[in-house]
Amino acid sequence: MSTPAEDDLLLERQLCFALTVASRSVVGIYKPVLERMGLTHPQYLVMLALWERSPRSLKDISDALLHEPATLSPILRRLEEAGLLTRERVPGNERALAVTLTKAGADLREQATAVPGTIMERLGLSREEVADLHAAMTGLIAATRRPAPVLAAQPVHAAQPG
């Protein structure tokens, strides 16, 4: 464990704050681009997973997007209502759900090919810079998934009333 520094609690030094603002800002840049395709950002992520491989099970999509299946259900329902995918129970396993692109969903991929370049241009980043940022974020995600070390109990001092 590193030694605490006096400015460790400054807002601008908080990793969580920088990530929250960056995430909100980047997703905000995607919004008008995706709206032209009739998609929200969460829907775009589901479509990306399906453009990689279709059909896919709900569990497989859930694992790919690091989301709970229950979180994805309303997103899938809206995409199905838009005619971009179908959801069907797997024969012989009524608990499993197969998600398959429709022709319209597969055709939307052509329009989506412009999205990464548009976002890079809007951010003023090269493909290499985006790859570097992605690698750093992927490393950070992996770090959050490692088991936490067992720390020695340290007293917590609660604020005193008054």
Automatic annotation (TrEMBL):
SUPFAM superfamilies: Winged helix' DNA-binding domain (SSF46785). One of its GO terms (cellular component) is cytoplasm. Coiled coil: none annotated. Transmembrane segments: none annotated. GO terms for molecular function: DNA binding; DNA-binding transcription factor activity. Keywords: DNA-binding. The keyword DNA-binding applies. It holds the Pfam family MarR. Its main location: cytoplasm. It is found in: Cytoplasm. GO terms for biological process: response to stress. It comes from the Bacteria. This is DNA-binding transcriptional regulator, MarR family. It comes from Arthrobacter cupressi.
